[in-house]
Amino acid sequence: MGALVGGGIATVLSLMVLSRALGDNPLYRLAQYLLVGVALGYAAAVLTGQTLVPAIMQAIDTSPSVPTITIIATAGLLFVLLIPRFGRQRGSTWANIPLAVLFGVGAAVALVGAARGTLVPQLLDTIATRRIDTVDPATIAGTVVLIVAVVVTLLSFTYRQRGDRPTSGARLLRSFGRGLVLATFGVFLAAAVTTYLTALVAQLQAMADWFTLLGTLF
Amino acid sequence: MTEDVPAWLTSTDAPSGTSTNEELPPWLASTDQPASEQHTTQVYDVPTDDTPAWLSADTPSGAQIDEAPERSSSSGPEAEAVELPAWLSDSSSEAQGTPASTATDLPPWLADMSDQPVAAQPTHGLPAWLDESSERAPAADKQAGGQSELLGGLDLPAWLRDDKAATSPPQPVESAPTWLQREEPEPEEATPQVVAIQATPAPRIVRSPERLASMQMLEQLMAEPPAEPAPQPAVRRRSRVLTIAIALVALLIVGALLAVLLTQRLGLAFGAVAAPVPAAVAAAELVTNLPANRPVVLAYEWDAQRLGELRALEDTVVGQLATRKDVPLIFVSTDPQGALLANERVAQLNALNDQYHLNGLGYANLGFKAGGPLALRRFAANASFGTLFAQDASGIDLRSNDVTMESMCGSSTAAGCSWDNVSLLVVIADDVDDVRGWFEQIRSEHPDLQTLLLTTAEIAPQTQPYAAVSGVTALSGLHDAEAYGRALGAPSERLGRQVDATAIGGALFAAAVIVGGVPAWFVGWRSRRTNVTATEEQAWER
């Protein structure tokens, strides 16, 4: 019974969303608002129930230690400083302090993480000797393609003065580089299309299952 | 009272009975004194000894002050005793002989007042400068006697000028300067007269050639007719044929997908066995060979909108982990919807009733961790791995639960927890930022940590750099999920049909792009050519 009702609601909502293919209509808007509202409401509930309330209850119920009191007091102070940002903006300068702490710490964490987790590993992997020190022709070909594509793509963005006409070789290089960029975007588009088609297939499968279930009842 | 006043001032006190002179100094009383009081024979005894020399020289004597009213009302040589400018004395003498001194030239209302006895004019007990009636009379007298010629040439505001001066301008005095004889239009009553200031000649402006050229250009622009407004680009409405064509293509794709989904597999490999996907095989081997009793961290960083792809991947991978019954699972998420999907998976594990997947024993749902990369950074260090259990999805601190800690960490205390005890990290994500966060904050700290990356096909190209690192296996999309099942030796018919439908849909989409691209290219080429022709014609017309 639950599968029948739940599947029916899902099928109706899916049809309402798919009706957008025929044009914008109230049914599509209704489904859109419903989905967005439910998602936001759930997110708010999760944030409240799993982030705010436990911390507050922990501070109230238990006898906190000195470090906990320090952390809670600092957080409370930063929260109080953030309050003037709302309303009439009186004394909102004080709100810059918690925002600066937030963005400063966030930027520092992101920067360190990007350097350690993305830039350095990818750079080292790009110039790794294993890409050349191999007998596998496919790996060697891949390394050559990688190097050429990176160099040509970067050269295609070469800055030049206005009115400075590039040579024919430079134009060919730029065209090749831009072609590579377009091919990359084409890959991204194809990947996105695959994802959307998969979502469509999954929804059609779910609707087909529901209609099949519905057909078994009659 | 008089003691505070200097002697030279006390001696000039007005006589009793004259209320006006009590409040005005004599030098002011001599000009503003009403006629009624000017006719009194009070003689001001001004002790010139007490006044400074510069003041005594200008201070009229008592006789002069006494004669002032007579000068205004009658002629006589006494008037000339006052040292007046020649043009003023002439005018006063002329005014004597003119009929202006008579009452016949006065307006009727003023003539009546002049006929009245002077002493009978009421003072109302007010100071003279407040009594309008007392002011009008001397003003009329002054005007009639030409005494106000000195002030008549001045630009006084209306409220300072008397009524008669406003109605009848003073008689021009021939001996006065020309600018005084000229009759000027009477200004309005309310507006103060503006003193005309002779304009000084403007300095000669030296204009540079550039400025002259700019001025010339501005003049040309003003002379030219205004430019015609640019034609608004016509809003193209989609033709009905195109709308029908799009609807037909959509119906064709949906019909084809339904046909594939509702029938047997098409056998797109034409009888050949589907080639195994290396990544799927590696992932299956990795999960199969995981050491027992070492936890697997499952990072749920995906939303329900990618259910079609990631649910299939999650089903296959987590399903295999669950079937082992010797690998504890730790669910954690920095995405609210991911926490919801983790709850759903936990509910499915509970429904297994296999006496292993119990809360705190076979799994631990740590719920949502707010903060994104910041939250991950808190748990990145080995020493801080135990803080992950400070709060689970229900808000319970699991660190005090010895069974849970022993099961999840291999140690009964949180201090004994470490990432080194984790056998596998599974990141299920539909966003590149989520993948980046886990790899930058967690895996960069533990490069040897085995990682399985499950993503959508959409972000697979962007996560490729992370997947290329050793120790990382990546699966993406429905195709890899089906290949994973095949690698485990349990292919899914349902997943196979969905993969076939996706392949058919992709092929139809590509065909629609190619087929529709030809007329689109032709229409674009014709439009560009039309625009070029129109531009050339416009240029030719110019």
Summarize the structure.
With 218 residues, chain A is mainly α.
Question: In words, what does this structure look like?
Answer:
The complex is a heterodimer of chains A (218) and B (542). Chain A has 3 domains: 1-62, no CATH class; 66-126, no CATH class; 133-218. Helix content of chain A is 78%, strand content 0%. Chain A has helices at 2-18, 26-61, 66-82, 96-126, 137-155, 168-217. Chain A is extended and about 70 Å long. The two termini of chain A are 14 Å apart. Chain B has 542 residues and is α/β, with parallel strands linked by helices. Chain B contains 23 helices and 6 strands. In chain B, strands 3-2-1-4-5-6 form a 6-stranded parallel beta sheet, with helices on both faces. The chains are: A mainly alpha (218), B alpha/beta (542). The interface between A and B is large, with 44 and 54 residues.
Describe the protein's topology.
The complex is a heterodimer of chains A (218) and B (542).
Chain A: H1 2-18, H2 26-61, H3 66-82, H4 96-126, H5 137-155, H6 168-217
Chain B: H1 7-10, H2 26-32, H3 35-38, H4 53-58, H5 62-73, H6 77-81, H7 86-97, H8 108-115, H9 132-144, H10 149-152, H11 163-167, H12 178-181, H13 209-223, H14 240-262, H15 278-288, E1 296-301, H16 307-324, E2 329-333, H17 336-350, E3 363-368, H18 373-378, H19 402-409, E4 424-429, H20 432-443, E5 451-455, H21 460-467, E6 472-476, H22 477-487, H23 493-541
Parallel strand pairs in B: 1-2, 1-4, 2-3, 4-5, 5-6
Helix pairs in contact in B: 14-23, 15-22, 16-22, 22-23
Number of separate domains of chain A: 3
Q: Kindly name the structural category of chain A.
A: mainly alpha
What is the count of distinct domains of chain B? Answer: 3
Q: For the record, what CATH class of the largest domain in chain B applies?
A: Alpha Beta
Coarse structural class of chain B = alpha/beta
Which stretches of chain A of 5+ consecutive residues score pLDDT under 50?
Answer: none
Tell me the span between the first and last alpha carbons of chain A. 14 Å
Give the uncertain stretches of chain B in residue-range form.
Answer: 11-22, 31-49, 57-82, 90-104, 117-125, 132-150
SS element count, helices of chain B: 23
Which H/E pattern describes the elements of chain B? HHHHHHHHHHHHHHHEHEHEHHEHEHEHH
Order of helices and strands of chain A: HHHHHH
Named CATH architecture of the largest domain in chain B: 3-Layer(aba) Sandwich
Which percent range describes the beta-strand content of chain B? 5-15%
What is the CATH topology assignment of the largest domain in chain B? Answer: Rossmann fold
The greatest interface here is: A-B, 44 and 54 residues
Q: Give the distance, in angstroms, between the N- and C-terminal Cα atoms of chain B.
A: 97 Å
Placed side by side, the strands forming the largest sheet of chain B appear as 3-2-1-4-5-6
